[in-house]
Amino acid sequence: xxxxxxxxxxxxxxxxxxxxxxxxxxxxxxxxxxxxxxxxxxxxxxxxxxxxxxxxxxxxxxxxxxxxxxxxxxxxxxxxxxxxxxxxxxxxxxxxxxxxxxxxxxxxxxxxxxxxxxxxxxxxxxxxxxxxxxxxxxxxxxxxxxxxxxxxxxxxxxxxxxxxxxxxxxxxxxxxxxxxxxxxxxxxxxxxxxxxxxxxxxxxxxxxxxxxxxxxxxxxxxxxxxxxxxxxxxxxxxxxxxxxxxxxxxxxxxxxxxxxxxxxxxxxxxxxxxxxxxxxxxxxxxxxxxxxxxxxxxxxxxxxxxxxxxxxxxxxxxxxxxxxxxxxxxxxxxxxxxxxxxxxxxxxxxxxxxxxxxxxxxxxxxxxxxxxxxxxxxxxxxxxxxxxxxxxxxxxxxxxxxxxxxx
Length: 407
Hints:
Radius of gyration: 23 Å
Number of strands: 23
């Protein structure tokens, strides 16, 4: 395998790159979505306090926990598609919950509760002598934390669903001595999401299923996740599998709301772009993948529900290509956007502070499409410009491998 940070070839099972020190354990490529529930009163975390209070407390808690958490892992590969391990809880044909880290060393355990939830607890020795237990769950894909302080060494996750999770418990004794335990949970199943977004005064609803097998195949594809050219960026565009399924759902929703409207013109392309801009959250590679640069395939971003500008642009370009448009990826100074060819396109509502930018390629003009902000096709911040074959950034001509490439 190759280090995603510096590109050095390293052996399988290596946790840190010997060249740059980057943590390359597969544990750092996991995504998760969860709701943690209290064992005693069964109230959702999101009702514990206001978002502002939670943010303040999380910052204080994490300043301590980050110093103690071991994110290096033990070499277990949560994305191994060979099947459940001996530590897995089997729920059905191809559906299971695999357990990692302190679940495997015996300090933590998890069982299916009679209610259908997952009861997570410390064993008697691990929890002995402690009077307070701070449970922290981390959503790696969105860099979101949820927490609960309890007087008992167990919690109940009442609504388990597909995804990758980590749970950490900080135990505090009467003398103030603290011990931290951490476990990993991989709920291996298809992921289901429902989206709702508004475009051109109409509300669209989209149901999406991300097959776990497709997701697993993507993260194990062995790609170089760094990109140095538009051509390399365009190689991440995919039009099959979940992308094709999603495009078909978007098309059906569009035609239902707009009978007789063409699906080859700017209206449908704008609706596809609005879906990406509205429904997929922007998040850095560091937050999602724990590396400074990681180009994700579309199914990975649809599984996590978020990504950086390059990941969202890959999803947008993939959906547009699946819909029959000529689309690609454009690398521009400090940014990545989708590129879309439209015949006789005009934009009459360019927002203030934006410019309509199109770039020539193979005798056609491709409009650059911002995927992290809700702006029309072709509109980029007015710091960007293109003239006579050159990109400009805040009035200065820039050099480098910028431009457009098609898949």
